[in-house]
């Protein structure tokens, strides 16, 4: 998924259901200079999404532990 975020940042957003972010990323990506910020944005968003999933999983485990 990281490779998709670097090569096709807009597709990374679309695959995760963030359509508006994907459209904005595609507009940014249309310029050669915008490709780098778009790729960084997509990778950072992907990493943030993974961290949120881990936090939710840890919270569920803590609730079940009590």
From TrEMBL:
A Pfam family that the UniProt record links to this protein: Pmp3
Keyword entries, A-Z: Membrane, Transmembrane, Transmembrane helix
InterPro entries: PMP3
Predominant place of localization: membrane
Subcellular location, record wording: Membrane
Residues passing through the membrane, by range: 27-47
Similarity annotation: Belongs to the UPF0057 (PMP3) family.
Name used for this protein in its record: Uncharacterized membrane protein YqaE (UPF0057 family)
Species, as recorded: Sphingobacterium zeae
């Amino acid at each position: 998924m990281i490779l998709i975020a670097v090569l096709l940042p807009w597709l990374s957003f679309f695959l995760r259901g963030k359509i508006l972010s994907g459209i904005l990323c595609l507009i940014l990506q249309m310029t050669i200079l915008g490709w780098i910020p778009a790729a960084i944005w997509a990778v950072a968003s992907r990493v943030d999404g993974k961290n949120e999933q881990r936090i939710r999983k840890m919270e569920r485990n803590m609730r079940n532990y009590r």
